[in-house]
Description:
By secondary structure, this protein is of the alpha/beta class. The strands form five sheets. A seven-stranded mixed β-sheet has the order 7-6-16-17-18-15-19, covered by helices on one side. A five-stranded parallel β-sheet has the order 9-2-1-13-20, covered by helices on one side. A four-stranded mixed β-sheet has the order 12-11-10-14. It is about 25% helix and about 25% strand. It contains eight helices and 20 strands.
Amino acid sequence: MNNPVIIIGAGLSGLHAASVLSAKGIEYVVLEARGRIGGRVLSEPIADRPELGKFDLGPTWFWPEHEPVIAALVKELGLRTFEQHTNGALLFEQSADQPAQRHMLTEGTVAKSMRFVGGVQSLIDAIADGLPDGVIQLNRRVTAIHMDEEGMVSLDVEHAGEGKESLQARAVILALPPRIVARGIIFTPPLPNDLMISLTAKPTWMAGQAKAIAVYEQPFWRDVGLSGQVTSWAGPLQEIHDASPGAGSGALFGFFGLTAIDRKQLREERIRELVIAQLAKLFGSPAERPVALLFKDWSRDMDTSVLEDAKPLTDFPVYGQPEDAGIWKSKLFFAGTETSSHGGHLEGALCSAERAVHNMLKRIC
């Protein structure tokens, strides 16, 4: 019997690669360092108020008019979606000392984006539910990958609190951020220098960011003609959107203007205070009393971010396939949104998974 294909990473890309292999009858195993599936997809409920819905602390949107792969998958899986709320005025905050300016955008200015009922986690769960029992192994961190002179591949795997093991692989799909691969896994023999440079040059999407979500009983800002969308130069949140889960409760989420380094110097409690103060200034006294304030700093997530990711991005990164893997090219295959021309989107994660499986099957079949 052949050794299985091993997929490292149970985020969207790794799980989609697994589903494609399942459909083709290829034996595989998915190893995930975290204690959960989803990777950078993270949809959380309020601990004592689950009826309020789930809220995305990772990716939120997809654009079906421009992203055919995810649009087709959503239809195939029968997932429920709804359009991002954009009706109403946008607020523009230039200074902490002045009131925000109110603007009405002309129709068609904002591209139609869609969200998932139950958060993006519903997509992750639907894919995982279609996989055979036992193929996903959590709390499994790959620390090294070896290839001997005969081309046999083995992986050193650490089990959280349970010791180590060595696994044999027919081939490996690395469904991880490229910088995590370069900084977190030892390769014997080493990867080609050009490939290592290519991997470390790809900033991990979202790795330097943090998200805050203020959850309310209802989206009260809509009653006064506001969309919930804000552009701010005063901060701490630089970009704010309506994050309400479609019906019932309300929520506002924001991306930070504060850099990862700035955030590290502040206590989380202080960051939360600054967020609530900004929301109250923008949306009035009802914003001072959220049911809950969710916060996720991806720069502090060791399975997402490396030291280089703390440097703020000044432009959209150039993403795409890594350089040639040299002697590893028939054994290692790269997936993940950073390895796709659609990098940074859920579409990129899916496209990269399909490309990785396609290229792998050309080599091993």
